[in-house]
Each structure stands twice: as structure tokens, then as C-alpha cells.
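Show me any protein, fold above all:
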Amino acid sequence: MPTSESVKPKVYIGRVIQNAVVFNFSNSGEKAMTSDTLLQNVAQLFALLEQRKIDYLLVEGIALLQYVEGRNTEDIDLIMALSSLESVKEIEVTSQDINFARGKFDALQIDILFTRNRLFEKVQREYATTHHFVEQIIPCATVEGLLLLKLYALPSLYRQGNFARVGIYENDIATLLYSYRPELEPLLQELAQHLSQTDIQAVREIVSEIEQRINRFGKGFGSDT
């Protein structure tokens, strides 16, 4: 009997990104015209990383699609060391700070999370698995790894006043929690080692609010039964 893993459709990363670019009507016509190139770019990028034996982990939007129905995303998000990025000269870095970098691989946008950040390094080391994508087998964050990254980002997003992104992240968190019901306390204890006391308290409050929403949904909120 085939397993659920064997019958689950493989995520086609190139097609996901291509569709996101084409159906984002805020994109210029020139960017939309490069969408066909993206299919090749994605396959070439992961083949190159494998050829160079780069240690990396796929995270964020594309990784999320391995676990739940996701949203359109126009970029690739990877955790890797700065030295690894520097060994892939084909990625043109357009901006960089101590924890993050953004770059282009031809027409493909790539966001890098550096392992010099202790949480990012731990996610890559301890919250990793592999998944079969159409392009190839790719190292990918686990559900718990994705939750750690998204919860870690929330306090900063709130401070930035980035309401749209906060909404996206909280929805991703809620969907993962509802679908997989992971143990949250170990994750929150891990986050406490990387966030200020004020921030971890805020994260706990957000998680509590999300759990209340999930409980209401499970009880059939608004039904007469």
C-alpha cells in the first residue's frame, strides 16, 4: 500500500514562484516576462548548491508548502553560513546585514538567514529533514523549525509596524499549529534563549491568542450545536 508521502503531489518550486510573479499585478511587465526563466533558475540554483556541497536549509514560504496549503511566494529563503554564500558567486548580493542577506540568482530572488545567528544555526542543525520536490530532494525545515523562525520574527515585525506581514506570519503559525499540534512549550523555552524577556512574553501572549482561535474553530464557533 502506498504511503501518504508517496501519493502526496510534489511541490514544484519553480512553478510556485513563477505563478506568484505572474499573478502579482503590482509587478512590472518586464518582471512578469522573466517568469519562464524562473523555472530554469530554481532548478539551476539547487543543482549548483548540491554540486558545490553547500550546507543549507530551505525555510519560510516554499518549505511551508510541504506541510500545509500555502500562499504565493516570489522568492527562495535559505539558512546558510556567510562563508557558504561567499562560495556561490553566482548569487549577486544586493543587501546584507549581520543576520540576513538578499540576493539575485539571475531573475530569482533569494533571502539568506545566516548561521551566525544562534537560533538560525540551531534550526539548520536540529530542526531539519529532507523532502522530495519536483526539482530534487532538498533539505527543509521541520514544522517545529518553521514555527521557531516565525515566532522569533514576530516581535521585530510588530516594532516595524508591518501589519500585513504580521498577519501572514500569524496565519502561517495558526495553520501549522492546527494541522500538526506540536508541543509548544519546548519551542517557547528555546526562543527564550534568543529573545528578550519582554519579547518572549509577547510571543507567549500571541501563541495563547492563536490557540484560543483554534479552540473556537474546533468547537464550531457560531453553530447552534
Remarks:
- Residues 9-141 form a domain with the Beta Polymerase; domain 2 fold (CATH 3.30.460).
